[in-house]
Each structure stands twice: as structure tokens, then as C-alpha cells.
């Protein structure tokens, strides 16, 4: 009996991290993909994590990064979980001493169960809109009917979620968690306190908090 978990990704400022925590999020995401407008340096990430309360999971997002790049970030930033958004193999995702989740781009015809089976060490999977150039965070939704009712692993729903549609998404898809980035922003990388509060209210009012 678990409520729907929430991650706000693309945090770029300490005040946005604090706002997320004050609104009850379970995790925040820090982006280390240079082509993203939400990419931050290890120094900025350290400043953000230093402003967080305990018991908030800090997730580091990488896209086809080298081992040296990932280890360099880990040497400075206290991450709790890794999130891989590129073409990394299962072997590419392990060996850092941290659990990881793997994104699955919901391109036409994707076999989600088969994609999950390729990552036996993943703690969970993030289902996101197919955006091969930017690898997520573009505010695009996908057809939720692509998701089978039964999947072998927990999944996180992402892609085009907003305060207005998150309640409907949770009721229809019943994900373990939801992940939002641009849907709670006033500008790329700048979170809106009003939208964060509205998003969390949408999750709480979805009517499925105790149905998991």
C-alpha cells in the first residue's frame, strides 16, 4: 500500500530544491547532460544538495557519459541513485556503487518488457516520450495506452506531465512514481513554486495514493 512517488527533475537552483522538498517530493533530479538547458556543474550540484533536508533521494541523470565523467561527478556530489537516458548497456550502468534506473524511450512499436529484460540490474525504469535529440525534458507526452497493464518491474511515468494532467495520468496508468521537469517550470531550468505546489496537489488528489 504505497502512495505514488514523485521526482522533480532538472533542478538548477538551491531554492528550487528546497521548494520541492517543502512540497513533499521524494526525489530531485540533477542533470549532467551538456546539451540539456538544465545541465549543471558538479559545484552547482553540491550547492543544491547541501540545501536539502534528509530522506530526499538525489538522482544524477547522465546520457551516454563516460566512466570518467560519471566518476568525476560522484567524487564531488553525494548522489543516491543514477539515471541513464542514452544507449547505455546494463554493464555500462553498474560498477559505481549506486543503484540505477534506466529510461525507455516510448518510440512506436517499443517492446517495454523486452527493453526491461535487457537491464537485469536496474532498480526501476522510467517511461518517457521518444525524443532522440534531447533525451527527455521536452514537455512531450506519449500515448499512455502503449503501457501494458502488467510489467515485470516498477516503472516511473514521465513525459509531458503537468499539474493539470498528472491526476488523470496516475489514475489511468497506475505508475510507481511520476517524474516532472518542464511541466513545473516558468522557464527552462527555472522551477515555479506555484506549479510545484499545484503538481503535488494533483498527485495527492488523484485518488490512488493508497491503491498501489
Your description of this structure?
This protein is an alpha/beta fold and 212 residues long. The protein has one domain (5-204): TIM Barrel, CATH 3.20.20.70. Helices cover 26% and strands 20% of the residues. The termini are close together. The model has no long low-confidence stretch (mean pLDDT 91).
Structural class computed from helices and strand pairing: alpha/beta
Shape: globular
Counting DSSP E segments of at least 2 residues, the number of strands comes to 10
What is the CATH class name? Alpha Beta
- Percent helix, as a range, is 25-40%
The largest beta-sheet arranges its strands as 1-2-3-4-5-6-7-8
CATH architecture assignment: Alpha-Beta Barrel
Measured on Cα atoms, how large is the radius of gyration? 16 Å
In whole angstroms, the N-to-C terminal distance is 5 Å
CATH superfamily: Aldolase class I
Count of domains: 1
Taken in chain order, the helices and strands follow as EHEHEHEHEHEEHEEEH
Features:
7 helices; 212 residues; two-stranded antiparallel sheet; 26% helix; 20% strand; TIM Barrel; single chain; 10 strands; alpha/beta; eight-stranded parallel barrel
Describe the SSE topology.
Elements: E1 5-8, H1 14-22, E2 27-31, H2 42-49, E3 57-62, H3 67-74, E4 81-84, H4 90-93, E5 100-105, H5 112-117, E6 124-128, E7 155-157, H6 166-173, E8 177-180, E9 185-187, E10 190-191, H7 193-204
Parallel strand pairs: 1-2, 1-8, 2-3, 3-4, 4-5, 5-6, 6-7, 7-8
Antiparallel strand pairs: 9-10
Amino acid at each position: 500500500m504505497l502512495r505514488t512517488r514523485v521526482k522533480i527533475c532538472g533542478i538548477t537552483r538551491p531554492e528550487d530544491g528546497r521548494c520541492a522538498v517543502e512540497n513533499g517530493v521524494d526525489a530531485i533530479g540533477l542533470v549532467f547532460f551538456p546539451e540539456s538547458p538544465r545541465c549543471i556543474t558538479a559545484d552547482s550540484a553540491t550547492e543544491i544538495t547541501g540545501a536539502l533536508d534528509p530522506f530526499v533521494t538525489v538522482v544524477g541523470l547522465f546520457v551516454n557519459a563516460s566512466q570518467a565523467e560519471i566518476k568525476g561527478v560522484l567524487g564531488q556530489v553525494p548522489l543516491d541513485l543514477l539515471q541513464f537516458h542514452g544507449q547505455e548497456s546494463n554493464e555500462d550502468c553498474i560498477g559505481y556503487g549506486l543503484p540505477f534506473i534506466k529510461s525507455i524511450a516510448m518510440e512506436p512499436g517499443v517492446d517495454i518488457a523486452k527493453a526491461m529484460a535487457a537491464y537485469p540490474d536496474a532498480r526501476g525504469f522510467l517511461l518517457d516520450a521518444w525524443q532522440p535529440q534531447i533525451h527527455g525534458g521536452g514537455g512531450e507526452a506519449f500515448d499512455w495506452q502503449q503501457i501494458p497493464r502488467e510489467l515485470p518491474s516498477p516503472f516511473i511515468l514521465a513525459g509531458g506531465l503537468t499539474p493539470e494532467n498528472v491526476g488523470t495520468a496516475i489514475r489511468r496508468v497506475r505508475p510507481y512514481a511520476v517524474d516532472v521537469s518542464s511541466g513545473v517550470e516558468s522557464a527552462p531550468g527555472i522551477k515555479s513554486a506555484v506549479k510545484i505546489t499545484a503538481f503535488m496537489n494533483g498527485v495527492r488528489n488523484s485518488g490512488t495514493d493508497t491503491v498501489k
